[in-house]
Amino acid sequence: MMWNGDDYQARFDRIAADGGDVHGEAELVRSFGPATVLDAGCGTGRVAIELARHGVAVTGVDIDASMLDTARRLAPDISWHRQDLVGLDLGRSFDVVVMAGNVPLFTPPGTEAALVAGVAGHVRPDGGRLVAGFSLDRGYTLDDYDTHCGAAGLVLEARYATWSRDPYTGGEYAVSVHRKP
Ligand SMILES: C[S@@+](CC[C@H](N)C(=O)[O-])C[C@H]1O[C@@H](n2cnc3c(N)ncnc32)[C@H](O)[C@@H]1O
Predict the structure, then answer these.
(1) Does residue 60 form part of some domain?
(2) pLDDT for 40-97, tens place per residue?
(3) Which atom of ligand 1 is nearest to 101's Cα?
């Protein structure tokens, strides 16, 4: 899928201008107190840029050139990488890896397990976290995701219905927090 970064960002700018909260993901990530965060499937950098504003050292990775053009224009000082999360190897790990905005639903069908392995490989051992939110009505299930996380060495720590930590009771969206032991 090809994205238009400026159009994508404009949607969030409109929500913010109307008083909506577009930083729930960053807020949940910040609650873990990370010094370093990988925004995996960063798009236009909505989450990474907000984290950087709060002093977190962030790196963004996305495969889409238009999304990254917008991210670079908005925050030229952040480290943005145009790479596939499938097979990703940045040669380092992060306190938190976040996938906001349905990232596993946009990777080519059949690459979900490899995508999860690619991002899980960047979670710091001894307590680093992978935090991901995605819709559950498009064929990729929580069972699939937990299996892929488990195969990549991650253990489920918490699951919410929203990025504000509302309890998950079986709805069509979930935010999952997995830890690396
Ligand atoms: C709906 S956007 C979310 C963007 C951003 N995380 C946000 O929440 O605003 C999904 C993003 O995931 C990226 N993506 C999906 N599969 C990917 C993959 N295999 N490698 C890198 N990026 C991927 C897409 O290019 C797209 O920018």
Answers:
(1) yes
(2) 999 999 999 999 999 999 999 999 999 999 999 999 999 999 999 999 999 999 999 9
(3) 8
Count of the separate structural domains present in the chain = 1
Q: Specify the pTM.
A: 0.98
Q: Is the dihedral of CA 131, 138, 108, 150 positive or negative?
A: positive
Expressed as residue numbers, the domain containing 94 is 22-179
For residue 125, what is the domain's CATH number?
3.40.50.150
117 assigned to some structural domain: yes
Answer whether residue 65 is part of any domain: yes
Quote the ligand 1 centre to 39 CA distance (angstroms). 10
- Does residue 71 sit in helix, strand or coil? helix
Ligand 1: residues whose CB is within 6 Å? 3, 41-43, 46-47, 62-64, 67, 84-86, 100-103, 106-107, 115
14 within some domain: no
Q: Which residue lies with its CA nearest to atom 10 of ligand 1?
A: 103
Mutate to test the pocket of ligand 1, among 62, 80, 115, 122 (most ligand atoms within 8 A of CB): 62
Model confidence pLDDT, tens digit, residues 152-167: 999 999 999 999 999 9
